[in-house]
Here is the input.
Amino acid sequence: MATEESCFSTVNKLFFGEIFRATRDGACKKLRMRAMKKIAVYPGTFDPFSLGHENIARRAACLFDELIIAIAQGHHKMPCFALEERLDLTQHILKDVENVRVLAFSGLLIDFLHYHHATIIIRGLRSVKDFDYENALAGLHHQINPDVETVFLSAEPAHAFTSSSIIREMAFLNGNITPLVRPIVLEKLRQKHHADLK
Here is the structure.
């Protein structure tokens, strides 16, 4: 078993980006690599990907080395757009952000993070009600994997009272959703609506 002296001697010889903890029994445990790329995941069904989602994604992309937009299949929600459509729309909207990847996922989010070596979950908050729900999930994720942290980003005022479900309903009732989505999403929603009327 290594002594504390030998532990610190070892640390001094290692790359400066690594952090080690010297425990009381002298064992050395690697905790982090400062040089390691910070990967964050922004999960959701994104049905559709709204301007509110885009705002959160672009802000998060500025904070981390890489941002993965993880689009859930969402079968339990009976999504308006198929998974491939949601992937294509989101990729098109964020194509100018170099450190963003758009991927599909199913199953547990915590497993998705582990597979992609991500340690940060991004969640947008619109209200105190959102916080109560998201904070409970954040605690659960951290309990399952203490390396995983959740970062909350508050919605901009213009997007604080909208959701994908409201946008879909307004679109199908011929409401004006121009301030809420990109033109390409608006057009796709109109196409869906016209197809349902046939």
